[in-house]
Design brief:
CATH topology of the largest domain: Aminoglycoside 3'-phosphotransferase, Chain: A, domain 2
Number of strands: 9
Strand order of the largest sheet: 1-2-3-5-4
Strand content: 5-15%
CATH class of the largest domain: Alpha Beta
Distance between the termini: 52 Å
Protein backbone atom coordinates (compact mmCIF):
# COMPACT_ATOMS: atom_id res chain seq x y z
CA UNK A 1 0.00 0.00 0.00
CA UNK A 2 1.53 3.37 -1.03
CA UNK A 3 2.24 5.82 1.77
CA UNK A 4 1.40 3.15 4.35
CA UNK A 5 1.04 4.75 7.80
CA UNK A 6 3.04 3.40 10.75
CA UNK A 7 0.08 1.59 12.25
CA UNK A 8 1.87 -0.17 15.10
CA UNK A 9 3.31 3.02 16.56
CA UNK A 10 0.12 5.00 16.01
CA UNK A 11 -2.22 2.45 17.54
CA UNK A 12 0.00 2.09 20.61
CA UNK A 13 -0.19 5.85 21.09
CA UNK A 14 -3.96 5.73 20.96
CA UNK A 15 -4.45 2.43 22.82
CA UNK A 16 -6.61 1.38 19.87
CA UNK A 17 -5.73 -2.31 19.66
CA UNK A 18 -3.91 -4.07 16.85
CA UNK A 19 -4.55 -3.47 13.16
CA UNK A 20 -6.62 -6.05 11.27
CA UNK A 21 -7.28 -4.16 8.04
CA UNK A 22 -6.31 -0.75 6.64
CA UNK A 23 -7.95 0.50 3.44
CA UNK A 24 -7.38 3.87 1.72
CA UNK A 25 -10.65 5.79 1.50
CA UNK A 26 -9.47 9.20 0.34
CA UNK A 27 -6.84 9.85 -2.28
CA UNK A 28 -7.37 13.60 -2.22
CA UNK A 29 -4.88 16.19 -3.32
CA UNK A 30 -4.17 17.57 0.14
CA UNK A 31 -4.49 14.76 2.67
CA UNK A 32 -4.99 11.00 2.86
CA UNK A 33 -7.48 8.91 4.79
CA UNK A 34 -7.75 5.24 5.77
CA UNK A 35 -10.52 3.04 7.05
CA UNK A 36 -8.96 1.12 9.88
CA UNK A 37 -10.31 -2.00 11.59
CA UNK A 38 -8.52 -3.07 14.74
CA UNK A 39 -9.08 -5.51 17.56
CA UNK A 40 -10.88 -2.73 19.45
CA UNK A 41 -13.08 -1.17 16.76
CA UNK A 42 -13.37 0.79 13.50
CA UNK A 43 -11.59 4.09 12.93
CA UNK A 44 -10.80 6.74 10.35
CA UNK A 45 -7.09 7.56 10.26
CA UNK A 46 -6.19 10.86 8.64
CA UNK A 47 -2.70 11.63 7.40
CA UNK A 48 -2.25 15.42 7.24
CA UNK A 49 0.53 16.32 4.84
CA UNK A 50 -0.64 19.56 3.23
CA UNK A 51 1.82 22.14 4.65
CA UNK A 52 -0.94 24.74 4.95
CA UNK A 53 -3.08 22.59 7.23
CA UNK A 54 -0.75 20.04 8.83
CA UNK A 55 0.78 22.17 11.58
CA UNK A 56 0.21 20.12 14.79
CA UNK A 57 -0.60 23.14 16.98
CA UNK A 58 -3.15 24.43 14.47
CA UNK A 59 -4.66 20.95 14.16
CA UNK A 60 -5.03 20.71 17.93
CA UNK A 61 -6.91 24.03 17.92
CA UNK A 62 -9.26 22.81 15.19
CA UNK A 63 -9.79 19.57 17.07
CA UNK A 64 -10.76 21.47 20.22
CA UNK A 65 -13.28 23.44 18.17
CA UNK A 66 -14.99 20.27 16.95
CA UNK A 67 -15.04 18.88 20.48
CA UNK A 68 -16.80 22.03 21.70
CA UNK A 69 -19.24 21.91 18.81
CA UNK A 70 -20.06 18.31 19.68
CA UNK A 71 -20.90 19.56 23.16
CA UNK A 72 -23.44 21.90 21.58
CA UNK A 73 -25.08 19.04 19.71
CA UNK A 74 -23.56 19.71 16.27
CA UNK A 75 -22.99 16.39 14.44
CA UNK A 76 -19.24 16.07 14.15
CA UNK A 77 -16.66 13.32 14.63
CA UNK A 78 -14.03 14.76 16.99
CA UNK A 79 -10.66 12.99 16.99
CA UNK A 80 -9.65 10.62 19.74
CA UNK A 81 -7.08 11.58 22.33
CA UNK A 82 -3.91 9.52 22.66
CA UNK A 83 -2.34 8.26 25.87
CA UNK A 84 -0.65 11.65 26.23
CA UNK A 85 -3.97 13.49 25.97
CA UNK A 86 -3.17 14.96 22.56
CA UNK A 87 -5.30 14.49 19.45
CA UNK A 88 -2.38 14.81 17.03
CA UNK A 89 0.38 12.24 16.62
CA UNK A 90 3.61 13.08 14.83
CA UNK A 91 5.52 9.96 13.72
CA UNK A 92 8.57 10.08 11.49
CA UNK A 93 7.89 13.70 10.66
CA UNK A 94 4.33 12.94 9.50
CA UNK A 95 1.16 14.18 11.20
CA UNK A 96 -1.85 11.97 11.95
CA UNK A 97 -5.20 12.07 13.73
CA UNK A 98 -7.49 9.16 14.62
CA UNK A 99 -11.26 9.58 14.47
CA UNK A 100 -14.15 7.20 15.17
CA UNK A 101 -15.46 5.62 11.99
CA UNK A 102 -18.85 7.08 10.99
CA UNK A 103 -21.08 4.85 8.91
CA UNK A 104 -22.92 7.02 6.43
CA UNK A 105 -23.14 8.21 2.86
CA UNK A 106 -22.87 11.48 1.00
CA UNK A 107 -26.01 13.03 -0.47
CA UNK A 108 -26.21 15.68 -3.19
CA UNK A 109 -28.97 18.26 -3.17
CA UNK A 110 -30.84 16.37 -5.87
CA UNK A 111 -31.26 13.53 -3.36
CA UNK A 112 -32.71 15.80 -0.68
CA UNK A 113 -36.34 16.70 -0.18
CA UNK A 114 -37.27 20.33 0.34
CA UNK A 115 -37.64 19.59 4.04
CA UNK A 116 -34.16 18.10 4.15
CA UNK A 117 -32.82 21.21 2.39
CA UNK A 118 -34.36 23.26 5.20
CA UNK A 119 -32.58 21.03 7.68
CA UNK A 120 -29.31 21.44 5.77
CA UNK A 121 -29.52 25.23 5.92
CA UNK A 122 -30.34 25.10 9.63
CA UNK A 123 -27.35 22.80 10.16
CA UNK A 124 -24.87 25.18 8.54
CA UNK A 125 -26.45 28.06 10.46
CA UNK A 126 -25.98 26.09 13.68
CA UNK A 127 -22.32 25.51 12.75
CA UNK A 128 -21.73 29.24 12.29
CA UNK A 129 -23.66 30.18 15.43
CA UNK A 130 -21.88 27.46 17.40
CA UNK A 131 -18.44 28.56 16.22
CA UNK A 132 -19.31 32.08 17.31
CA UNK A 133 -19.81 30.68 20.83
CA UNK A 134 -16.82 28.36 21.10
CA UNK A 135 -14.03 30.14 19.24
CA UNK A 136 -11.75 32.87 20.66
CA UNK A 137 -13.18 36.42 20.73
CA UNK A 138 -10.62 37.64 18.19
CA UNK A 139 -12.34 35.51 15.57
CA UNK A 140 -15.84 36.79 16.14
CA UNK A 141 -17.72 38.85 13.62
CA UNK A 142 -15.81 41.96 12.69
CA UNK A 143 -17.37 45.30 11.71
CA UNK A 144 -18.75 45.60 8.20
CA UNK A 145 -15.93 47.98 7.34
CA UNK A 146 -13.23 45.42 8.06
CA UNK A 147 -11.07 44.34 5.10
CA UNK A 148 -12.31 41.25 3.33
CA UNK A 149 -9.88 38.39 3.99
CA UNK A 150 -9.78 37.46 0.31
CA UNK A 151 -9.29 39.99 -2.50
CA UNK A 152 -11.94 39.68 -5.19
CA UNK A 153 -10.70 38.57 -8.59
CA UNK A 154 -9.21 41.27 -10.80
CA UNK A 155 -10.74 40.97 -14.30
CA UNK A 156 -7.46 42.12 -15.89
CA UNK A 157 -5.72 39.11 -14.37
CA UNK A 158 -8.58 36.87 -15.44
CA UNK A 159 -8.34 38.07 -19.06
CA UNK A 160 -4.65 37.14 -19.05
CA UNK A 161 -5.47 33.71 -17.62
CA UNK A 162 -8.15 33.16 -20.27
CA UNK A 163 -5.65 33.98 -23.03
CA UNK A 164 -3.14 31.52 -21.56
CA UNK A 165 -5.74 28.76 -21.26
CA UNK A 166 -6.98 29.36 -24.80
CA UNK A 167 -3.41 28.92 -26.06
CA UNK A 168 -3.10 25.67 -24.12
CA UNK A 169 -6.39 24.40 -25.52
CA UNK A 170 -5.31 25.16 -29.08
CA UNK A 171 -1.98 23.36 -28.58
CA UNK A 172 -3.60 20.21 -27.21
CA UNK A 173 -3.42 17.36 -29.70
CA UNK A 174 -5.37 15.39 -30.58
CA UNK A 175 -8.24 17.78 -29.87
CA UNK A 176 -11.23 16.20 -28.17
CA UNK A 177 -14.72 17.10 -26.95
CA UNK A 178 -13.35 18.51 -23.68
CA UNK A 179 -11.11 20.89 -25.65
CA UNK A 180 -14.09 21.98 -27.72
CA UNK A 181 -16.20 22.76 -24.65
CA UNK A 182 -13.29 24.48 -22.89
CA UNK A 183 -12.66 26.69 -25.93
CA UNK A 184 -16.35 27.64 -26.12
CA UNK A 185 -16.63 28.41 -22.40
CA UNK A 186 -13.44 30.48 -22.32
CA UNK A 187 -14.60 32.71 -25.17
CA UNK A 188 -18.05 32.94 -23.61
CA UNK A 189 -16.65 33.85 -20.21
CA UNK A 190 -14.38 36.50 -21.65
CA UNK A 191 -17.39 38.16 -23.28
CA UNK A 192 -19.33 38.05 -20.00
CA UNK A 193 -16.44 39.58 -18.08
CA UNK A 194 -16.05 42.36 -20.62
CA UNK A 195 -19.72 43.15 -20.15
CA UNK A 196 -19.69 42.98 -16.34
CA UNK A 197 -16.16 44.07 -15.40
CA UNK A 198 -17.52 47.12 -13.55
CA UNK A 199 -19.38 44.88 -11.07
CA UNK A 200 -16.28 43.70 -9.19
CA UNK A 201 -17.18 43.42 -5.47
CA UNK A 202 -15.64 45.99 -3.11
CA UNK A 203 -13.50 45.10 -0.11
CA UNK A 204 -15.17 44.90 3.28
CA UNK A 205 -17.87 42.77 4.85
CA UNK A 206 -18.73 41.02 8.09
CA UNK A 207 -16.69 37.92 8.88
CA UNK A 208 -16.82 35.08 11.37
CA UNK A 209 -15.58 31.54 11.96
CA UNK A 210 -16.61 29.06 9.23
CA UNK A 211 -16.08 25.40 8.41
CA UNK A 212 -14.23 26.48 5.29
CA UNK A 213 -15.14 23.59 2.98
CA UNK A 214 -18.82 22.73 3.44
CA UNK A 215 -20.02 20.57 0.54
CA UNK A 216 -21.65 17.15 -0.04
CA UNK A 217 -18.43 15.14 0.32
CA UNK A 218 -17.80 16.62 3.76
CA UNK A 219 -21.23 15.72 5.13
CA UNK A 220 -22.24 12.17 5.98
CA UNK A 221 -25.87 11.09 6.24
CA UNK A 222 -27.22 8.12 8.16
CA UNK A 223 -30.68 7.50 6.76
CA UNK A 224 -32.33 10.89 6.28
CA UNK A 225 -30.39 12.70 9.00
CA UNK A 226 -26.91 14.27 8.95
CA UNK A 227 -24.57 12.03 10.93
CA UNK A 228 -21.32 14.03 10.83
CA UNK A 229 -19.69 17.06 9.27
CA UNK A 230 -16.10 16.08 8.50
CA UNK A 231 -12.85 17.64 7.25
CA UNK A 232 -12.36 20.80 9.31
CA UNK A 233 -8.94 21.54 7.81
CA UNK A 234 -10.11 24.89 6.42
CA UNK A 235 -11.68 26.16 9.63
CA UNK A 236 -10.98 29.88 9.71
CA UNK A 237 -12.32 33.42 9.68
CA UNK A 238 -14.22 34.21 6.47
CA UNK A 239 -17.51 35.84 5.45
CA UNK A 240 -20.10 33.40 6.76
CA UNK A 241 -22.75 34.26 4.19
CA UNK A 242 -20.36 33.38 1.39
CA UNK A 243 -19.85 29.90 2.78
CA UNK A 244 -23.64 29.49 2.81
CA UNK A 245 -23.99 30.61 -0.81
CA UNK A 246 -20.93 28.69 -2.00
CA UNK A 247 -22.25 25.49 -0.41
CA UNK A 248 -25.67 25.97 -2.02
CA UNK A 249 -24.02 26.41 -5.42
CA UNK A 250 -22.45 22.96 -4.97
CA UNK A 251 -25.36 21.13 -3.33
CA UNK A 252 -28.11 22.44 -5.61
CA UNK A 253 -26.48 22.69 -9.05
CA UNK A 254 -28.19 20.50 -11.63
CA UNK A 255 -26.36 18.62 -14.41
CA UNK A 256 -27.41 21.32 -16.90
CA UNK A 257 -25.71 24.04 -14.84
CA UNK A 258 -28.84 25.58 -13.30
CA UNK A 259 -29.60 25.88 -9.60
CA UNK A 260 -32.66 24.37 -7.99
CA UNK A 261 -33.90 27.67 -6.61
CA UNK A 262 -36.84 26.11 -4.74
CA UNK A 263 -34.46 24.03 -2.66
CA UNK A 264 -31.97 26.88 -2.36
CA UNK A 265 -34.71 29.16 -1.03
CA UNK A 266 -35.74 26.66 1.66
CA UNK A 267 -32.11 26.16 2.61
CA UNK A 268 -31.37 29.91 2.73
CA UNK A 269 -34.40 30.75 4.87
CA UNK A 270 -33.39 28.16 7.45
CA UNK A 271 -29.77 29.31 7.34
CA UNK A 272 -30.70 32.96 7.95
CA UNK A 273 -32.83 32.01 10.96
CA UNK A 274 -30.20 29.75 12.52
CA UNK A 275 -27.22 32.04 11.85
CA UNK A 276 -29.13 35.29 12.44
CA UNK A 277 -27.91 36.50 9.06
CA UNK A 278 -29.61 39.45 7.40
CA UNK A 279 -30.93 39.54 3.84
CA UNK A 280 -28.40 42.25 2.99
CA UNK A 281 -25.54 40.01 4.13
CA UNK A 282 -26.82 37.18 1.91
CA UNK A 283 -27.30 39.54 -1.04
CA UNK A 284 -23.68 40.69 -0.73
CA UNK A 285 -22.57 37.06 -0.46
CA UNK A 286 -24.50 36.10 -3.60
CA UNK A 287 -22.80 38.90 -5.51
CA UNK A 288 -19.32 37.98 -4.36
CA UNK A 289 -19.72 34.24 -5.01
CA UNK A 290 -21.20 34.99 -8.45
CA UNK A 291 -18.13 37.10 -9.23
CA UNK A 292 -15.90 34.34 -7.91
CA UNK A 293 -17.56 31.82 -10.23
CA UNK A 294 -17.32 34.19 -13.19
CA UNK A 295 -13.54 34.46 -12.71
CA UNK A 296 -12.84 30.89 -11.63
CA UNK A 297 -11.05 28.40 -13.91
CA UNK A 298 -9.55 25.94 -11.45
CA UNK A 299 -10.91 22.90 -13.29
CA UNK A 300 -9.32 23.98 -16.56
CA UNK A 301 -6.07 24.80 -14.79
CA UNK A 302 -5.99 21.32 -13.31
CA UNK A 303 -6.65 19.80 -16.75
CA UNK A 304 -4.25 21.88 -18.86
CA UNK A 305 -1.54 22.97 -16.40
CA UNK A 306 -1.29 19.87 -14.21
CA UNK A 307 -2.62 17.16 -16.49
CA UNK A 308 -5.02 16.27 -13.66
CA UNK A 309 -8.40 15.20 -15.07
CA UNK A 310 -10.22 14.27 -11.86
CA UNK A 311 -12.41 17.37 -11.99
CA UNK A 312 -13.29 16.98 -15.69
CA UNK A 313 -16.74 15.40 -15.05
CA UNK A 314 -17.74 18.47 -13.02
CA UNK A 315 -16.73 20.98 -15.68
CA UNK A 316 -19.84 20.95 -17.93
CA UNK A 317 -22.25 21.83 -15.11
CA UNK A 318 -19.86 24.17 -13.29
CA UNK A 319 -19.00 26.14 -16.41
CA UNK A 320 -22.64 26.41 -17.43
CA UNK A 321 -23.58 27.62 -13.94
CA UNK A 322 -21.57 30.84 -14.26
CA UNK A 323 -23.39 31.70 -17.48
CA UNK A 324 -26.84 30.82 -16.16
CA UNK A 325 -26.20 32.65 -12.87
CA UNK A 326 -25.27 35.80 -14.76
CA UNK A 327 -28.47 35.63 -16.80
CA UNK A 328 -30.66 34.81 -13.78
CA UNK A 329 -28.80 36.99 -11.27
CA UNK A 330 -31.92 38.63 -9.79
CA UNK A 331 -33.74 35.32 -9.38
CA UNK A 332 -30.76 33.76 -7.61
CA UNK A 333 -30.43 36.74 -5.30
CA UNK A 334 -34.15 36.64 -4.49
CA UNK A 335 -33.88 32.96 -3.54
CA UNK A 336 -31.33 33.79 -0.85
CA UNK A 337 -32.93 36.93 0.59
CA UNK A 338 -36.71 36.36 0.47
Amino acid sequence: MPHAPPLGDLLRRYAAGSALTCEPVDQGLLNRGYRLRTTSGHYFLKHHFDPETADPAALERRHRATQRLAGLGVPVAPPLAGRDGRTVAVVGGHTYALHPWIDGRHRHGGQLTTGQCTRLGALLGAVHAGLERVMPPKGRTAPATSPHPVRSADPAETFALIDDLLARVRRHRPADSFDELAHHRLLERRALLERHADRRPPRGGSVGWVHGDFHPFNLLYRGDAPAAIVDWDRLGVQPRGEEAVRAAAIFFVRPDGTLDLTKARAYARAYRRAAQATPSQLAAAVHRVWWERLNDFWMLRWHYERGDTRADPQFPAASALAVWWTREYDAVCDAFVE
